[in-house]
Amino acid sequence: MSFIPPSESESNTVELLKLQLFGDFPELSQNGNFNNTTVLRFLRGNKHNEKASKDSLHNHIVWRRENDVDHIPERTHEFQKEIDGRKVLLGFKDLHGRPACYV
Q1: Positive or negative torsion for Cα 83, 87, 93, 98
Q2: How does pLDDT run across 19-69, given as a tens digit for each residue?
Q3: N or C: which end of the chain has fewer CB within 10 A?
Q4: How is residue 5 annotated by DSSP?
Q5: Cα atoms in the Cβ-side hemisphere of radius 13 Å centred on 57
Q6: Could you read off the pLDDT of 2-28 as tens digits, one per residue?
Q7: 102: helix, coil or strand?
Q8: CA–CA distance, 13 with 2 (Å, rounded to integer)
Q9: Rounded distance, CA 76 to CA 71, Å?
Q10: What count of other Cβ atoms lies within 10 Å of the Cβ of residue 80?
Q11: Angle of CA points 39, 42, 10, to nearest 5°
């Protein structure tokens, strides 16, 4: 599947959603993981329903915060015990040849 650029209407809605979310989460404006493409994905995933998109994005942001997702590279020591116990297998590929990690 290839990326389909946003229509003018989608672009306007994405900007509106970002402004609303920046009000609730001002630090997002500095987060590279929160960009137009992310907001567009949620907008399209919720069939262009602005309220559902905003609610989904809000839940996504809260989940990322609660699980400290943006700092995982700095937390690899937390996973080392699982890797050493061979509960996590690295260096494999899925059926389409993409890098995969098996838990």
Answers
A1: negative
A2: 999 999 999 989 888 899 999 999 999 999 999 999 999 999 999 999 888
A3: N
A4: P
A5: 32
A6: 889 999 999 999 999 999 999 999 999
A7: strand
A8: 21
A9: 9
A10: 10
A11: 60
Inter-axis angle of helices 8-24 and 36-45, to 10 degrees? 110
Question: Which residue type occupies 12?
Answer: N
Greatest pairwise CA separation for the chain in angstroms: 51
Closest Cα to residue 54, out of 38, 42, 66?
A: 42
Q: Report residue 85 as tokens.
A: 């116990």
Length of the chain: 103
Question: What CA–CA distance (Å, rounded) separates 100 from 103?
Answer: 10
Paired tokens of 6: 């946003």
Rounded CA separation 19/26 (Å): 9
